[in-house]
Each structure stands twice: as C-alpha cells, then as structure tokens.
Model the fold of this input.
Amino acid sequence: MTSQIDAFIPAASSSERTMSDSEAARAEAEAAHYAESRRRAARVVAACASDVTEFRLLADMLGLDGSDLAAARHDDKPPTRPRRHRAA
Done:
C-alpha cells in the first residue's frame, strides 16, 4: 500500500533529474548577473576606500574574494555613470 506522500514523488530520483533548457538559461543568466554585481561592488569599494587596509576590510565585509577583485581590476569596460547636465 502506498501512502499519499509516495504518490507525489516522481519516478526518477532528484539526482537523476536534468535541467530543462529554460532552467539552464535562467541559471546561466543568474550567474552572470551575480558575477557582474560582485565585480561592480569591488570597483565601488576600491573607489571609496581611503587606503589598502580599509579596502581589504570593506571587501572582506562584502565577502569579495580574489577572483572578484581580479575581475574588477582587469575590467575593460569603463564604469557607466549618468551624465551630469550643466546649468544653462
């Protein structure tokens, strides 16, 4: 006799389940967004820190590791800022 819980368990175990194309695309987009956010955070910390000690402290607080800092350092794209309009 099967219980009601057994009726909801799929035939394949969770370890055998594969991701659909849309799930894989979503996971890839989330990973890219996460990496971009960490790279931008490292750039902001570097711009705001007054010295190396403060930079390391702030980066450590945010959980930024060496790969995040290296990605920010070797970034070819300049930071984008909204243009300031001068008064006429």
About this structure: Residues 21-73 form one domain. The mean pLDDT is 78. The CA atoms of residues 37 and 68 lie 10 Å apart.
